[in-house]
Write a structure and sequence with these properties.
Distance between the termini: 14 Å
Radius of gyration: 17 Å
CATH topology: Rossmann fold
Number of domains: 1
Order of helices and strands: EHEHEEHEHEEHEHEHE
Strand order of the largest sheet: 1-10-9-6-2-3-5
Amino acid sequence: MDIQLSRSKKDLGCQAAEYGAAAILKAIAERGSANIIIATGASQFEVIEHLVDQDEIHWPAVTVFHLDEYVGLPITHPASFRLYLWKRFVSKLPMPLKAFHYLDGEHEAEEEAARVSQILARHPIDVAFVGIGENGHLAFNDPPADFDTQQPYLVVDLDEDCRKQQLGEGWFPTLADVPTRAISMSIQQILKSQRIVCSVPDERKAQAVRSCIEGPVTNQAPASILQQHDDCTIFLDAPAASRLKQEVS
């Protein structure tokens, strides 16, 4: 695990996007296509903004997978991750993608998880863009996360801390409006990515960052599993890194 400290969220987004883009370009150069995972949420705003500006990427050679989605939330809802990805990523690209495999949270959840799992199994991931939640979750794998399942996508229950984060970020008007279930890429599937680019801004993530980077690998801090990945870089701004004991340059 490598840690990179950025001066601001804008710099963090630029650096993370450029680092991930290098893996996309390498995959396209080597075999003519690339498969990537795109995360959502407030932590990814700047990353996605800069990723769509990477002019060197031939997007028609890129297949994208959706990291997670709420169960039962219509695509028209402001918190829908499908809507988020269309508005912030797909619609901003200069040319169409090879494919984007959305998770349809309005479909029967187990069937949808199985459907996209079958597609993902045929597409080894070159780079995964992810974040870390305030409760240490990776995707929507809240603690205690399932570190063992090999199923690519799972239907998971969202814990209260996770739901409070979504409320605090302004996606929902009340806690009761936040869904209690989601379809999420599994921990083991994320770890199969050749490169992982993890972006974590803001002081509210500082304790989770410390637990996941400097604490033991445990399913009580799900993103701590990233310590075991061979090519994982975590991009932090100063507030997110503020509780680390080690110095980060």
